[in-house]
Design goal:
Helix content: 25-40%
Strand content: 15-25%
Shape: globular
Number of helices: 5
Bound molecules: ligand FNR
């Protein structure tokens, strides 16, 4: 199988984000046929149709080109107030326009959500599924909710439990199969 490029979007912007560590752990256990680019979302101006001119904000153009250059999208996010963090929703909106030119269209996607508590971002996970459906994205059916986020890594930054590693590995193998089926 040829190498497939996967864009990774992380829903937390903070420097010490554990969700980002989780994203890196997922990339690390993925099959070698997948390569990962973390596409940053923190510098995207709020979506505003008035800025959708022949010269839109440079950060929007950079973001759209980055996503266009990939074969699939992996979204890893915490939940904010039972929903999608604003920065992530903004990034999805930026990628959705100009009308008819959504960079998301048809790209296979996987969603993983996480929380320090027990629910694993159930709310945000399903909101993301609903949103990505708009673009006809084939979404990996496996529902990935990671609870106990703050206990996931030990003091050395390694996954604290062996079974977590196995779980993450199986998700990424499933995603590889999913991408190949929908490419
Ligand atoms: C949260 N948090 C949170 N957690 C949760 O499980 N459900 C929720 O609805 C919310 N709401 C919420 C709103 C806002 C504005 C913040 C800042 C936080 C806690 C959240 O899960 C936690 O901060 C992140 O998981 C931390 O992840 P990072 O930043 O370490 O990746």
């Amino acid at each position: 199988m040829s190498t497939k490029k996967v864009a990774v979007l992380v829903g937390s912007l903070r420097d010490a984000s554990v969700t980002r560590k989780l994203a890196k752990a997922l990339a690390a256990v993925a099959p070698e046929t997948l390569s990962f680019t973390f596409v940053e979302i923190g510098d995207l101006p709020h979506y505003n149709e008035d800025l959708e001119t022949e010269t839109p904000p440079a950060a929007w153009t950079r973001f759209r080109e980055d996503i266009k250059g990939t074969d699939a999208v992996l979204i890893i996010s915490p939940e904010y107030n039972r929903g999608v963090p604003g920065a992530l929703k903004n990034a999805i909106d930026v990628g959705s326009r100009p009308w008819g030119k959504a960079v998301w269209a048809g790209k296979p996607a996987a969603i993983a959500t996480a929380s320090p508590g027990a629910l694993g971002g159930y709310g945000v996970n399903h909101q993301l599924r609903q949103i990505l459906n708009v673009f006809g994205m084939p979404i990996l059916p496996t529902e990935v909710y990671i609870s106990g986020l703050y206990d996931l890594f030990d003091d050395n930054g390694n996954l604290a439990k062996e079974d977590t590693q196995g779980f993450l590995t199986s998700i990424m193998k499933g995603f590889e199969d999913w991408i190949s089926k929908h490419s």
